[in-house]
Amino acid sequence: MVSDEQKVENLEKEAVNKERRKLTLSSIPFSLTCILHKNYILADPTAEEESIMDTLVTVVLDSSSQLVSLYKPGGPVLAYTSAVQNCIALTRQRVKELQEILDEAISGMEID
């Protein structure tokens, strides 16, 4: 009889997909993690800050600021809608900032 530990070891050794596949993205994804604590929102929290959180929200937007993913593991079942909307707004602002940095870096690159 195979133990649960042996089953886990076998799963870890065996690749799920042995073929290599190329990931094609139509736009660059940008993510921002926010913690909601009482009436505060903190963007890009440290591990120490995450330890005191009420709720964690990760927002992923594409380069045109369209919502790609919203992840909220655990915490209170219902976070205030306005707090989640504020996290999305913070992510949109971050996308603009990062897009400017990327555009500036790309324009400064010499292409052979």
From TrEMBL:
Protein name (database record): Uncharacterized protein
Organism: Pistacia atlantica
Lineage, top ranks: Eukaryota, Viridiplantae, Streptophyta, Embryophyta, Tracheophyta
